[in-house]
Write a structure and sequence with these properties.
Layout: H1 8-14, E1 17-20, E2 23-26, H2 31-40, H3 47-64, H4 74-77, E3 80-87, E4 90-97, H5 102-113, E5 115-116, E6 119-120, E7 122-124, E8 133-135, H6 148-166
Antiparallel strand pairs: 1-2, 3-4, 5-6, 7-8
Helix pairs in contact: 1-5, 2-3
């Protein structure tokens, strides 16, 4: 889990179901596991939150992979309204989120915070055989792999092998 990083619920949500050679690893597979996952991410773990997390996850994964449009996330983006509260310290913006869409809306707010002039900070791992996503915190926004130890090293080893085979 990456619960200490910006965008952590979004990242953990899209990485919560991975198909591996020995089967599917799904953090939301059972209601008990999904509830515990949501509680670990600051939510209540209710039946409604579980349903929302399960509904939004495939849409978010498809969107982040470029396979679905932003319009498909409309039920969650429309569930958020922002209003100002004026006080002695100035303006504070508060989010009102429909409870039935809270998980997806929260993920969308995190996604929005990861967008910048240099592009999105959240993206799929560049390894063709990897399903994970990453949040790039590098200054140049040039990180490619979700894990240097696995995907990065494999990619470098493949390039090295290809160079030595050609020579």
């Amino acid at each position: 889990m990456t619960t200490d990083a910006a965008g952590s619920m979004l990242l953990d949500l899209v990485n919560s179901r991975i198909v591996e050679p020995d089967g599917v690893h799904d953090d939301l597979e059972t209601d008990a596991a999904a509830s515990a996952w949501l509680v670990a991410h600051g939510e209540g773990g209710t039946v409604g939150e579980i349903a929302d997390a399960r509904a939004v996850r495939p849409v978010l994964v498809g969107f982040l992979r470029g396979e679905r449009g932003l319009a498909e996330l409309e039920p969650w983006t429309a569930a958020v309204s922002r209003h100002p509260v004026f006080g002695a310290d100035g303006v504070t913006w508060l989010d009102d989120i429909e409870p039935a869409r809270r998980i997806g809306a929260r993920a969308m707010l995190e996604w929005a915070s990861l967008q910048g002039a240099e592009g999105s900070r959240i993206r799929p791992c560049a390894a063709s055989d990897c399903q994970h996503f990453l949040i790039d915190t590098s200054r140049a926004n040039s990180r490619k792999w979700h894990s240097m130890e696995t995907c990065g090293n494999r990619a470098k080893a493949r390039r090295h092998y290809a160079r030595t085979r050609q020579g």
